[in-house]
Amino acid sequence: MLVPFSSPLIEADEIREVTKVLRSGWIGTGPKVQEFERKLSEYIGVNNAITVNSCTAALHLSLIVSGVRVGDEVITTPMTFAATSNVITHVGAKPVFADIKKNSWNIDPNEIKKRITNRTKAIIPVHYAGLPCDLNEISEIARAKNIHIIEDAAHAFGARYDGQRIGSSGNLVCFSFYPTKNITTIEGGLVCTQDTHIADLIKVLRLHGQSSDAWSRYSSGSAKSYRVTHAGFKYNLTDVQAAIGIKQLEKVNRFLEIRKRIAKIYLEELNGVHGIIVPVSEAENGERVWHLFTILIKSEELGVDRDVVMAKLNEIGIGTGIHYEALNLHPFYQNQYGYHDGMYPVAEYVSARTLSLPLSAKLTDEQVIYVIDRLKSILKG
Ligand SMILES: Cc1ncc(COP(=O)(O)O)c(C=O)c1O
After folding, report:
1. CA atoms within 13 A on the CB side of 206
2. Whole-number Å distance between alpha carbons of 113 and 344
3. Beta strand ranges found along 216-343 (DSSP E)
4. Residue 127 C-alpha to ligand 1 middle, in angstroms?
5. Is the peptide bond preceding residue 266 cis, with omega within 30 degrees of 0?
6. Ligand 1 center to residue 56 CA distance, Å?
7. Among 30, 89, 214, 341, which is 20 to 30 Å from 120 by CA?
């Protein structure tokens, strides 16, 4: 049985809506993007939901509008995808890693405190695997020092913190709609903010720094040309992608429920199995979503290496992932900033043992049971 690590659930209505847009004569950024943004802001409970073409773009623009510049420092977790810290480099700032907590694998507020200097301009916490991080504690630290928070919520679409949807905190909050994510637009991203002035600036920056986009000019019936007010970027989403996103958003509760049910099966079957650590099932202050189901393989107890387990699963057609190899272990961060191994003991412990099992809204219970069964027998040796 083939079990992909993750595959998007695309149904007849997404295909129908995409076809309609393709036939409509307007396939770029236009009315569908506007409709998607309106629906996203209602779902999240935020004044402004601005779509872009990736979460990477969302993070990059968030750093720019937060005023992060050359010579500044930005604190983030080493247990994340490279995009989170690459964008810090793109604005000329230095990524400063702070170790993660042993249980949640989210950034540790106490470690953040230790890394703050007078050059620290922002903190980018990641809601790892869909588990909300300690936003209250991080906010307290940031407020006291006048530091911006940019939440990397690439994994956390649909999660809640203190009863409110992630995205509505008042920070800049960035989401991803990549194919493996909780909802997808193929490629796509989102910045949320309660601040309408900041939102207006992001809208200008996402499209070449132009004061108005082509659809606004066309639909207002005015031939007035735009003004270039900033050296902006080409980060806009298209109507074809937004048409997929609108349909995906209608189904988000179902998708999240399926992911939750699968995670429950994994938890029931794997919790207590010798040599495995399972993820935290609920956040202290929030309601998690299940973007990833990541376990730790304690090779020292099992006598079998994580990479061997992964290779054996892959050999029989079960897709897996590593989320993540700690960023201080990657050549770019070592060569550019002098990071090395041994600096982040918790992240490095997780990094050497982490293994993400198949999880998506398309996965069947039968596939999940098969994965569990094969994994258990590989671990027995
Ligand atoms: C934690 C995290 N941040 C940022 C990104 C970048 O998202 P995108 O691929 O939409 O640019 C990802 C993508 O997987 C991610 O996992």
Report:
1. 29
2. 15
3. 276-277, 286-287, 293-297
4. 11
5. no
6. 6
7. 341
Phi, psi of 49 (to 5 degrees): -120, 110
Q: Are 115 and 92 in contact, with CB atoms under 8 Å apart?
A: no
Distances (CA, A) of 178 to 65, 189, 226, 242, 325: 23, 8, 31, 13, 20
Task: Report the interhelical angle of 55-65 vs 196-205 (nearest 10°).
Answer: 120
Strands 293-297 and 164-165: unpaired
Query: Within a 10 A sphere around the Cβ of 337, how many other Cβ atoms?
Result: 16
Atom of ligand 1 nearest to the CA of 176: 10
For ligand 1, the distance from its centroid to the CA atom of residue 178, given in whole angstroms, is 8
Considering only CA atoms, which of 258, 275, 274, 238 is closest in space to residue 367? 258
C-alpha closest to that of 190 among 208, 178, 201: 178
Using CA atoms in the order 66, 72, 78, 79, what is the torsion angle rounded to 10 degrees?
A: 0
Mind listing the pLDDT tens digit of every residue in the chain (381 residues)? 899 999 999 999 999 999 999 999 999 999 999 999 999 999 999 999 999 999 999 999 999 999 999 999 999 999 999 999 999 999 999 999 999 999 999 999 999 999 999 999 999 999 999 999 999 999 999 999 999 999 999 999 999 999 999 999 999 999 999 999 999 999 999 999 999 999 999 999 999 999 888 888 878 776 568 899 999 999 999 999 999 999 999 999 999 999 999 999 999 999 999 999 999 999 889 999 999 999 999 999 999 999 999 999 999 999 999 999 999 999 999 999 999 999 999 999 999 999 999 999 999 999 999 999 999 999 988
**Residues belonging to the chain:** 381
Note if 181 is an active site residue: yes
- 28 touches 234 (CB < 8 A): no
